[in-house]
Design goal:
The chain is of the alpha+beta class. The protein is built from five helices and nine strands, in the order H-H-H-H-E-H-E-E-E-E-E-E-E-E. It folds into two domains: 4-79, Orthogonal Bundle (434 Repressor (Amino-terminal Domain)); 88-222, Umud Fragment, subunit A (Ribbon), CATH 2.10.109. Helices cover 20% and strands 26% of the residues. It is elongated. Pfam families: Peptidase_S24 (PF00717). This is Helix-turn-helix transcriptional regulator.
């Protein structure tokens, strides 16, 4: 049975899972930072105040969680590790994987034609999880604020080149001109690719397929 206490406890648990406070979770979702404060959970008249469905939807989107994940927390259970990843995807196997900054990713020599790591100059990063093995995964470090509010400066994105992508997936795209960006795939046809910007201050983008070097799906983010 849903209750006021369980809904708020689930939000607190979701925030903790992502290393955030309740205020940090609200900020990550693009909401007023005080929206989830304990003082806001009851009205001045003492009545229970519930989070709106719109707020919950924004929180789930910002954390990459599903409704099933959230309901498991409402029930007091724990979701399995893989349920935190889109489309049943798993993060890469624990251990060291290649790491590169977004600025470097725009330079030549770091990727092969398929978007897999190549050449010298890669750093490494440890991935502290126990998922299924996915060869070829690598990490990109977010630099700057162009991906706010979803990804912040210093966040690590785990990318799987060659993975099947579909509308709504978060992806890293590299253009033929060397521009590298993290976007949401809106539409892909044999002739064009339409991308939605994570940051509303940055425009959405549209490319001819011939202008795209590669597209790789983001399967995990450290936040």
């Amino acid at each position: 049975m849903l209750s006021h206490e369980r809904i708020w406890s689930a939000l607190d648990a979701l925030a903790e899972r992502h290393g955030l406070t309740a205020s940090g979770l609200a900020r990550r979702a693009g909401l007023d930072p005080t929206a989830f404060n304990k003082s806001k959970r009851c009205g001045a008249d003492g009545r229970d105040r519930w989070p709106s469905t719109e707020s919950l939807a924004k929180v789930l989107d910002a954390t990459g969680s599903s409704l099933d994940d959230f309901m498991s927390l409402v029930r007091g259970g724990q979701t399995t590790p893989e349920s935190s990843f889109p489309d049943g995807a798993f993060p890469p196997q624990a251990g060291s994987i290649p790491l590169l900054g977004f600025a470097q990713a725009g330079s030549g020599g770091f990727f092969d034609d398929g978007g897999f790591p190549a050449g010298q100059g890669w750093d490494v990063v440890d991935f502290p999880a126990q998922p299924a093995e996915r060869p070829g995964v690598y990490a990109l470090e977010v630099q700057g604020d162009s991906m706010l509010p979803l990804y912040r400066d210093g966040d690590i994105l785990i990318v799987e080149p060659g993975a099947q992508i579909r509308r709504g997936d978060r992806v890293v795209v590299r253009s033929r001109e060397g521009e590298v960006m993290a976007k949401v795939l809106n539409r892909q046809t044999p002739k064009s690719v339409e991308l939605i910007s994570l940051n509303p201050d940055h425009p959405n983008r549209s490319f001819d397929v011939s202008e795209i070097d590669w597209i790789a799906r983001i399967i995990w983010a450290s936040q």
